[in-house]
Write a structure and sequence with these properties.
- The protein is of the alpha/beta class and about 400 residues long.
- It has 7 helices and 29 strands.
- Strands 8-5-7-6-10-9 form a 6-stranded mixed β-sheet, with no helix packed on it. It has a 6-stranded mixed β-sheet with strand order 17-14-18-22-21-19, sandwiched between helices. The chain has a 5-stranded mixed barrel with strand order 23-26-25-27-29.
- Strand 25 and strand 26 form a beta hairpin.
Length: about 400
C-alpha cells in the first residue's frame, strides 16, 4: 500500500500536458493560456483623466477653497476618444470627462464635485501634481509580462486580452474523459429500480464534476461484473479518451475484475491501494502502446463518497495539469476544531467538514454521515479536514489543516 502523498506524486509525474490550439477570444473562457501574454503597448497608452472634472495648473488653485473659490477661464472640453493638441494656458481650466486624454500643461484634475461652471469655472479646492491622472504605462509597459502561461482564462482575463486588441490566443486543449461505472446492481435514473438494485450515483456525480472543470467531451458508460462487458467498455473508451475513470471493481471480491481487465488490455500499473480514507482501493495506471500520449487510467472505489473524494484528491489535479501545464495547488487553511475527532492509525483520513469564519478565525466541524456510502454528509460539506495518518485523536480546539472544496 502506498501513502497518499506518494500516490499523488506518481500521478502527477505520469501526467503530461495536452497539445495546444488557437481559439478566438470570444470562445476562450475556461481554457488555460499556453503562452504568456506580453504587453504590446503601454497601458494606459496615454495620460488620461480618472474622473469627470477640470484640468488645471496646480499653481493656479493653491489658494482655492469652498469659502474662497478660484475663478478660471474655461478653455474648452475634451471627451474620451477625442484628441486635444492645444496646451492649457495659465489661469485657465479645461473640462475633462473620464478617459479623456490630458492636454499639455494640465498638472491635475479637480473632480467636478469641487467646481462650479457658468461662463467661467469656480474651483473650490486645491490640487496636487498628478491628482486624478492616469499616467501612461502606470499599469504595464510595452514588453511586460501581463498574464503568465498556465493562467485560467476568466472573464477578467478576457477583458484584459481585449484591452490589448488581442483577437485569439494559444491555449491548451482539454482532455477527453470517459467514465465507466461497474456493477450488475447499478441502474440508470431513466429506468425503474427493482429488488436490491440501486441507482448509479457516482457516475452522474463524476460527470457533473468534469463539466464543472470545463471539460466538454465526457461520456458515461456502465459495465457489468464480467470480463466481457468490462473489456468491451474499456476498449471503446480507450479508442476515444485521454483519461479513463472507472468506478468499482478494484477491491478483492470475487467480482472485482477491473484490475485484471486493465492488465489484459496492456495498462501499466503504477499503484493499487492507497493509505487514505475514504479511498483505500484506488488504482492508477497508464496505457502507452501506439498512442501519441499516455492514456491515464484511474480505477476508483465503488462507494460513491470514496469515488468522489478520490476524484478530488487524485484525478482532478491530473486533469488540471493536463490542461494548464502547471501542478495545481489546493487552497488550504488552518482551522480550529469545534468537536473532537478519533480514528485508527495508518491512513490519512479526509474528514468531510463544514468550515466557517468566526471572529476572524476559521472554525470547522465534521458533518454527520462519514461512512463511504453516505452522500448526505459530502453534499453538506465545504471542506476536507486532513487527519494525519498516524494520529488517532484530535481534541476539540486543536488546529487542523482544511482544504476548501473547489468544484471548478
Amino acid at each position: 500500500m502506498i501513502s497518499f502523498h506518494a500516490a499523488l506524486k506518481k500521478v502527477l509525474n505520469e501526467t503530461g500536458v495536452m497539445p495546444t490550439t488557437q481559439v478566438q477570444l470570444g470562445n476562450s473562457s475556461g481554457f488555460f493560456l499556453a503562452r504568456p501574454l506580453k504587453a504590446s503597448i503601454d497601458m494606459p497608452s496615454f495620460d488620461n483623466s480618472a474622473v469627470d472634472g477640470y484640468g488645471v495648473r496646480v499653481r493656479d488653485v493653491v489658494a482655492a477653497s469652498t469659502k474662497s473659490p478660484v475663478v478660471l477661464k474655461l478653455s474648452g472640453t475634451v471627451r474620451a476618444g477625442e484628441l486635444r493638441l492645444r496646451g492649457l494656458a495659465p489661469g485657465s481650466a479645461v473640462k475633462l470627462f473620464t478617459g479623456a486624454p490630458i492636454p499639455a500643461g494640465v498638472e491635475a484634475v479637480v473632480m467636478r464635485e469641487w467646481a462650479d461652471e457658468s461662463s467661467a469655472v469656480r474651483i473650490m479646492r486645491s490640487a496636487e501634481h498628478g491628482e486624478n491622472i492616469r499616467r501612461r504605462g502606470e499599469e504595464f509597459r510595452k514588453g511586460d509580462e501581463v498574464v503568465p502561461a498556465g493562467t485560467r482564462i476568466t472573464p477578467a482575463v478576457v477583458g484584459l486580452l481585449a484591452a490589448f486588441g488581442i483577437k485569439s490566443c494559444r491555449v491548451y486543449q482539454k482532455p477527453i474523459v470517459r467514465i465507466i461505472t461497474v456493477g450488475d446492481e447499478l441502474v440508470s435514473q431513466a429506468k425503474a429500480r427493482s429488488g436490491s438494485r440501486i441507482f448509479d450515483s457516482a457516475g452522474p456525480a463524476l460527470s457533473s464534476w468534469c463539466r464543472e472543470l470545463g471539460l466538454p467531451d465526457i461520456a458515461l458508460r456502465r459495465a457489468g461484473d464480467n470480463q466481457r462487458s468490462l473489456t468491451e467498455a474499456f476498449g471503446k473508451a480507450a479508442n476515444q479518451a485521454d483519461v479513463i475513470i472507472t468506478v468499482g471493481g478494484v477491491s478483492v471480491g470475487d467480482y472485482d475484475l477491473t484490475k485484471s481487465v486493465f492488465k489484459d488490455c496492456g495498462v501499466r500499473q503504477c499503484f493499487w491501494r492507497v493509505a487514505m480514507k475514504p479511498g483505500k482501493p484506488n488504482y492508477f495506471g497508464v496505457l502507452e502502446s501506439g498512442r501519441r500520449r499516455k492514456l491515464l487510467v484511474f480505477g476508483l472505489p465503488g462507494n460513491p463518497v470514496s469515488a468522489l473524494v478520490s476524484f478530488y484528491c487524485l484525478v482532478k489535479p491530473a486533469l488540471l495539469k493536463m490542461m494548464s501545464g502547471r501542478v495545481p495547488v489546493s487552497p488550504r487553511f488552518r482551522a480550529r476544531l469545534t468537536s473532537p475527532l478519533f480514528k485508527k492509525p495508518g491512513r490519512l483520513e479526509f474528514v468531510r467538514g463544514r468550515a466557517i469564519v468566526k471572529d476572524g478565525e476559521w472554525t470547522v466541524a465534521a458533518v454527520r454521515g462519514q461512512e463511504s456510502h453516505m452522500l448526505g454528509g459530502l453534499a453538506q460539506a465545504n471542506c476536507l479536514i486532513h487527519f494525519d495518518a498516524e494520529s488517532t485523536h484530535l481534541p476539540r480546539g486543536s488546529q487542523v489543516v482544511i482544504e476548501l472544496f473547489s468544484f471548478s
